[in-house]
Design a protein that fits this description.
By secondary structure, this protein is mainly β. 7% of the residues lie in helices and 35% in strands. The chain has one domain. The strands form 2 sheets. Strands 1-2-3 form a 3-stranded antiparallel beta sheet. The protein has a two-stranded antiparallel ribbon with strand order 4-5. The two termini are 20 Å apart.
């Protein structure tokens, strides 16, 4: 978690697409640290009243 230039909370992470995660992209058997299917992603974060992150846009 960090803040963007405007002071908004953001979550920075890396992930694979569903196709690669399921082993359908042709790189699933390769070294996971050299995986062209991994991409950096950034997402805004909202917070619950008790300080837990809401990452999918809705509180559970």
């Amino acid at each position: 978690f960090t803040k963007d230039e405007a002071g908004n909370d953001i979550f920075v992470y890396h992930a694979r697409s569903k196709e690669c995660f399921e082993g359908k992209c042709g790189y699933s058997d390769n070294d996971p640290l050299h995986d062209p299917c991994r991409h950096a992603r950034i997402q805004t974060v909202e917070w619950t009243a008790d300080g837990k992150p809401i990452l999918n846009g809705r509180e559970k």
